[in-house]
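re the bet — no i am not wrong, look at it urself. input seq straight from the record:
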Amino acid sequence: MRSHLSIPFILTLSTLSAQAPLWMQVATSGPAPRYQTRLAYDSQRGRTVLFGGSGSGFLNDTWEWDGATWTQMSTTGPTPRLFHGLAYDSQRGRTVLFGGFDAGSGHRGDTWEWDGVTWTNVASGGPAARRYHAMSYDSQRGRTVIYGGFQTGPGLFGDTWEWDGTTWTNVSNSGPVARRHSVMVYDSQRAVTVLFGGTSGSGNHHGDTWEWDGSTWTQASNSGPSARFYHAMAYDSQRGQTVLFGGSSGPYLSDTWEWNGTSWTDVTAGNEPTRREHGMAYDSQRGRTVVFGGLAPPITRLDDTWEWAGGATSTAAAYGTGCGNPALTLTPDSSARPIIGTTAQATLANIPNLVAFVSLGWSDTMVGAFALPFSLAQYGMPGCDLLQSAEYFALPVTPLGPGTASYGLALPNSSGMIGIDLFLQAWAPDPGTNLGGVIVSNGVAWRLGNV
């Protein structure tokens, strides 16, 4: 059962967070302003690689970001282009580029690889020439995966291709409906390629999530972020989360979402830089998702670099000791941690007379002018301590069976609550045990997070 706290409590909860902004602007110099550029993270060299895009014309420059500085590496290699695909092959130490659109030849079907020094044209066959396709690298199977895209004439593609470093193979012609502007990343913990969104044109935008296991596409979700295109995604391998940011559904978007393989969570921090058609990659060495450039409304090319520090992990831990014979205990539920948008839970045990309740406070160090823990011996309860400030008292619990009950707190899905600490303690009438006729439990400390 969810507890129903007062509106003042929820408003207080939503405004208490002292969490630092999760998006941080880290550079305003480096590559020239551009949109439809692509980023990939070279994990062997610890560099985020950027190629091409559109600025004052189509571009073919290569830049690398080391977490502090952008360095221009090359102005030769693939022809100037945008709407291409870029992914890092970690087994072979190569950044792979496929396709896109250039001013001279139009749609491209060439494959290039960057080794950190030189671009090499490694194939001119394989998938049909295209732009707007999704591309990522499956590190378990050693395959660069392409899905969909567009070419004038044939129109939209709904095919899946894989590159093993030597040969392109058409591995599927079924799965998501044919589309362009979808985005893919590889979830290395679950060994699936994750695809979200895109458009089939004429306002037919998609908000579905699909996963590719190397042989079959499976629709994993049809809820979460709003339907969109021109967005970007990266896979946070440290936390096992696919991060989605921005894009367009007509208006420009500035929301941030995370996918854990089961559900999407809105982790928008409120300071996101509104944009679409930006480049994005995950720096696994520093634990940062990197965003560069894109378009801001109305049509402003950007040259700024932002980093996402990741979500905040929720925690739940017991502390202190309870009183009674046996002692009343309160245990956090490991499967229902205090994650925003869910119900956090704790379990009571050793309830002597089937009646119990919970108090909740903002502090485990002070109650008014008094330090915690505060002995309740003067109130006829020797051996019992107040362990939290108890601003909210007599919160109901749900009986589970003889001597047991659960307490649940529904947490609004508001990123402003990330980082808040809450402290709980259970109480139960027990006449005859002490003069006060009440026993109390140990405490439980909750830190609110989005994962």
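see?? The mean pLDDT is 93. told u. also The longest strand covers residues 438-447. so pay up
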